């Protein structure tokens, strides 16, 4: 996974996206009897069987990510706001985030040139690496965390079917997820799951997780000084259908308090994803030849 100049908003949203998008299990369960209403566990197992397909499919798309990062006063009002829009492309199978707008305004010529230079440097670096090197890097970073989630989720959480509802015109099941008190984990992902309780909306038509809301019941830390979320932090995640074939992130939201790198305090971060395009072949710099995505709801272009 690439590591361009880290930004608090981007790192926060990517961590939460990795957590919520990676709520999956390995394998597939037996189809339940159609004459019987599905149980909560059956709904979850069937829905999670789609996770790996969605995770693999996102590597076939370019898209835009717009982040709104706010530092908050004690009363919750914004103290400082930063808005950045990124273009996500694929280079040698690796995602690259290129800054294209700041505060919803195009970058200056000087900043555009800097971003092009960063992109060129990343391309040259990736061109010298082997596929094995890239795979090892993925296993050390985000994908390792996702695999931990995949292994721990069936053991860490209990699910209760609350009922049925309608979400954006689709019939959904609504489930409540709570940690199991009788299971302890030593992995980073398991420790995080053990502190989360939330609600999940799953489509009845194709068993996809369209929305997740969760809250931390205790502090969660990564390393001694790198990253910490405080008890009460609220997380939200939504997905949307793309190209009538896969569900991909639409929105990630987090509000609470904690520490990211050297910054400490109350914060609110929202990342929205749009303009998905499927690539079909590699080109010299961006590594993509794009096809327009279908089945996406109308989205506002970056200003």
Name its key features.
disordered N terminus; single chain; alpha+beta; 14 strands; about 300 residues
Q: How would a crystallographer describe the biggest sheet?
A: 14 strands, antiparallel
Low-pLDDT parts are: 1-15, 21-33, 282-291, 297-303
- Rough outline: globular
Give the helix proportion (percent range). 25-40%
| Global structural class | alpha+beta
Describe the model.
The chain has 303 residues and is an alpha+beta fold. It is built from 7 helices and 14 strands. It has helices at 8-21, 40-48, 51-57, 109-127, 131-140, 142-156, 188-193, and strands at 61-72, 78-91, 94-102, 105-106, 157-167, 170-179, 196-203, 209-216, 220-222, 227-229, 234-242, 246-260, 263-279, 290-292. Strands 1, 2, 3, 4, 5, 6, 7, 8, 9, 10, 11, 12, 13 and 14 form a 14-stranded antiparallel sheet that branches. A hairpin with a 2-residue loop joins strand 12 and strand 13. The longest helix is centred in the middle third of the chain and has 19 residues, at 109-127. It is globular, with a radius of gyration of 20 Å. The two termini are 28 Å apart. Residues 1-15, 21-33, 282-291 and 297-303 have low confidence and may be disordered.
């Amino acid at each position: 996974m690439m590591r361009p100049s880290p930004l608090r908003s981007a790192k926060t949203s990517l961590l939460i996206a990795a957590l919520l998008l990676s709520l999956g299990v390995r394998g597939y369960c037996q189809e339940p009897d159609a004459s019987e209403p599905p149980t909560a566990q059956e709904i979850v197992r069937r829905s999670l069987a789609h996770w790996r397909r969605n995770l693999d499919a996102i590597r076939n798309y370019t898209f835009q990510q717009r982040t709104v990062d706010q530092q908050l006063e004690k009363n919750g009002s914004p103290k400082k706001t930063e808005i950045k829009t990124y273009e996500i492309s694929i280079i040698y199978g690796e995602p690259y985030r290129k800054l294209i707008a700041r505060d919803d305004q195009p970058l200056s010529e000087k900043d555009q040139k800097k971003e092009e230079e960063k992109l060129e440097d990343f391309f040259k670096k990736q061109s010298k690496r082997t596929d094995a090197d890239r795979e090892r890097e993925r296993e050390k970073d985000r994908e390792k965390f996702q695999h931990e989630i995949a292994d721990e989720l069936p053991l860490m959480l209990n699910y209760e079917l609350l009922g049925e509802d309608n979400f954006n015109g689709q019939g959904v099941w609504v489930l409540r997820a709570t940690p199991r008190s009788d299971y302890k984990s030593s992995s980073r992902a398991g420790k995080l799951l053990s502190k989360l309780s939330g609600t999940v909306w799953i489509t009845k038509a194709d068993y996809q997780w369209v929305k997740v809301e969760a809250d931390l019941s205790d502090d969660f830390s990564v390393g001694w000084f790198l990253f910490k979320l405080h008890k009460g932090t609220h997380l939200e995640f939504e997905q949307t259908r793309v190209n009538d074939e896969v569900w991909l992130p639409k929105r990630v939201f987090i509000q609470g308090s904690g520490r990211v790198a050297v910054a400490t305090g109350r914060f609110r971060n929202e990342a929205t994803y749009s303009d998905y395009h499927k690539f079909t072949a590699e080109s010299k710099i961006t590594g993509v030849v794009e096809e327009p995505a279908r089945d996406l709801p109308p989205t506002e272009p970056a200003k």
